[in-house]
């Protein structure tokens, strides 16, 4: 693996190599951070995680993507995960933690990570802690994107998209010129099936039931930071930076 990567470096444009070198030099002075992002759908985790990732030179570990990548790479854990998925079973917590453990070997994860979508249960949190302890590290901060369900409902159920272009609108925050019609083409806008009040309600119920115990678990360790996720993104970013500084 290392030799093929080294051989391929010859084909990388100099400007890209220099950019990456400068990035790594800048990153070398940053403190290590191991973060978990917790929050319901639509709370803004997806907006903030790339900003945090770049600011602190962390790797972003989204467990769903990692599972798919492990399956595609046919790694030993990926093969096991694929067997479970093909039987319609849930991938075991140990397997997911194993895949996270593997990912932490990558150079991009050297300064730490952002975990998003995991742990969802207290058992997963305990297994994650055990694995990190074996590596001699621990979770530094849990960022809780706290937001009122009613605000989320307004945020999410107001979203409409133009399927062909991906242009998105919001009935309250970014309405189209004509209700239900795309500004550019005049075609009808649609709502994603996940963006309806009924779907959101069941997702939120599941989230509160599963994840609130996880927040309690980390609160006992005094590492939870509650963010005001209903604020505009720039203000949330400022809050995150204050918490992490």
Arrangement of strands in the largest sheet: 2-3-1-4-7
CATH class of the domain at 15-58 and 111-148 and 208-244, anyone?
Alpha Beta
Q: Which percent band covers the strand fraction?
A: 5-15%
Number of helices: 10
Largest sheet descriptor: 5 strands, parallel
Question: What do the pLDDT scores average to?
Answer: 90
CATH topology of the domain at 15-58 and 111-148 and 208-244: Rossmann fold
Uncertain spans, ≥5 residues at pLDDT below 50? none
The residue fraction in helices comes out at 40-55%
Order of helices and strands: HHEHEHHHEHEHEEHEH
CATH superfamily of the domain at 15-58 and 111-148 and 208-244: P-loop containing nucleotide triphosphate hydrolases
What's the CATH architecture of the domain at 15-58 and 111-148 and 208-244?
3-Layer(aba) Sandwich
What is the global morphology? globular
| Helix-strand makeup class | alpha/beta
Q: Output the radius of gyration.
A: 20 Å
Question: How is the quaternary structure best described?
Answer: single chain
The termini sit apart by 37 Å
Q: How many β-strand stretches?
A: 7
